[in-house]
User: What shape does this take?
Amino acid sequence: MALTYDEIMEKVREALVDALGVDEDQVVPTARIGADLGAESIDYLDIVFRLEKAFNIKIPRGDLFPDNILSSEEFVQGGKLTEKGLQELTTRMPYADLTSFSQNPNVQDIADLFTVDMIVKYVQAKLGSA
Assistant: This one.
């Protein structure tokens, strides 16, 4: 039986509360993992581990939080994602809302794409529950 969005959200909330030490009421769909919940780079590994365990899924490195896009001159120029970089990000993160980011694709703002809702949608896709 496929999990609902709310059921996935509840497990994601538990994983984020445990990984980041935040209050449950802070973990809302629009909360940004870094800016709002205080995740640092090492925390992303812990989040992935906890999601894998909670949902019994395998999350390949860079799949949920693609980082290697930022190190390519083909994808980043002058501190912004190129058109090709935006296409790659869209391909790699189909569950993220890139609407406003694509208007001004500053690399420094990419972390704002990693929201609780994005993680829930990613897990939905992994589980085939979408």
Observations:
- The CA atoms of residues 39 and 95 lie 20 Å apart.
- The mean pLDDT is 93.
- The chain is about 40% helix and 5% strand.
